[in-house]
Amino acid sequence: MITRRKALKALGISSLGASTGLGIPSLAIAQSDTDSVNPLKIPQLAQGELTGNVRQFQLILQQGSSTFLTDTTTATFGINGSYLGPTLHFHRNESVSLHIENQLGEPTTLHWHGFHLPTSEDGGPHQVIANGDTWNPRFTVVQFAGTFWYHSHMLITAGEQVYKGLAGMIIVEDDTQQVELPSTYGVDDIPLIVQDRRFNADGSFRYMSDYEDMVVGMRGNTILVNGTWQPYFVPSTRLVRFRLLNAANARTFIFAFSDGRAFQQIASDGGLLERPVTLTNVELAPAERAEIVVDFSDGRDVNLVSVGKPSYFPEFPGAMSAMMRSMNTQDFDLLSIRLQGQLQDNGTLPESLAPIYRLPESAATNTRQFLLSMGTGQRSGDDRGPGTGLRNGNGGGHGGGNFSINGRKMALDFINERIKLNTTEIWELSNNSPMSHPFHVHNGQFQILDRNRRPPPANEMGWKDTVKVGPGELVRIIMRFTDFSSEEIPYMYHCHVLEHEDRGMMGQFLIVE
Ligand code: C2O
Ligand code: CU
Ligand code: CU
Predict the structure, then answer these.
(1) Can you give the residue range of the structural domain that contains 132?
(2) Of the ligands numbered here, which is closest to the C-alpha atom of 153?
(3) Is the CB of 429 under 6 A from ligand 1?
(4) In this structure, is residue 351 part of a structural domain?
(5) Is 289 in the pocket of ligand 1 (CB under 6 A)?
(6) Could you tell me if residue 348 is inside a domain?
(7) What 3-state class would DSSP assign to 161?
(8) Most buried in the list 62, 218, 265, 301, measured by CB within 10 Å?
(9) How many of the other CB atoms lie within 10 Å of CB of 8?
(10) What is the pLDDT of residues 42-55, one digit of tens each?
(11) Domain check: are 57 and 152 in the same one?
């Protein structure tokens, strides 16, 4: 089983602690030597029912009781089941119609994360489904093939509802796509919905139990993958495609293998990359996705892990410092992979995947700035320069509860931005808080122009709908605003740490003619 030292060494980052001068944080692994005893659950694949050229889906949002741990049960939310929902299988250029019934006992919404669709079908905070009501969104799937997801987007309670289980994966397939990839669902094409949770002694979920949960977002010490605790998976093919979805409320995962083996990333949020990118780890903030292909031909058992990062945050007295220092420093075993018997040969990975037209900067006719902030802090004057997380006096002291974008909190009746239909814009995202925020824009996919004026790494050169913005970082994205203009119903942009979103780190935009 992996140790932290081994994992760091395998990743070639063993000297990180030394180079930052902060010392390596705890070498202990959170759940040491867990014996993975539960076969990985694979969410049911919902293909819908094709009537004419519309694919119909029935979704019931319901309360449930789930058994994750031994000997206890947990009150949960689920979609057509007790926890999470089926994987919805859509086809590009087909229309879908979803009949959604809310039996949760409270209002909710259901949002199609990453989709390019009319604002009225988006499932954002304006499309509330009251308890006992139904909602019937209908849209044409214009997405490229890829991995998306759906989840509650209820104003203020999205975090708690997703935590309880209101989320699922969406796979879009392009029937005309030529490229050959492992694509047998549940066999060599495996969804991995990764979440961290915290439990009370009686087995119930513990949500928002202290100040830290509110400030840095709700993180847990126990990992669930597709709602499975301590899961294992037995490959039957040489190559396995994993669809990694970070469906955590607040935690960033750095996915890697315990033996440091390389893998290929083939897709980012919005679909295939131009060509496979060889990596030994991939970092995903909440809501980000990556499809990776891993080779198990060597027949060796291995673990999919998340590797903690040594804290960059300087140590000084105060609650904020302690919280920031502990962020994402933990290691986790996510999935134990057991090799048993003969592996079927399921081909080789193609060298090129999909052409990606990089939107030229010159296409943009407007630039907007978005400043992500969390609280005024009590230690104003602490400005230790970029990369320290201490800019403009934000982030030293208490505060931290005052989440905003451009100094404003989300208000349902306030339109923050109006964007002209059929234009391309550059959005400059900056962050003067001490932690990173995954910035998500509704209405579809964008591209990352640069991070601190440097081109993004190869695996961030494809289509994205969510992008990490680190403390003190400037990330520039470029996006086209075609279709779906509306004078009434806006799209959202927000931090995808759900506790930040729920507390106001969200804004609204209209696309207008
Ligand atoms: Cu994944 Cu606005 O949400
Ligand atoms: Cu979204
Ligand atoms: Cu945030």
Answers:
(1) 45-173
(2) 1
(3) no
(4) no
(5) no
(6) no
(7) helix
(8) 218
(9) 22
(10) 999 999 999 988 99
(11) yes
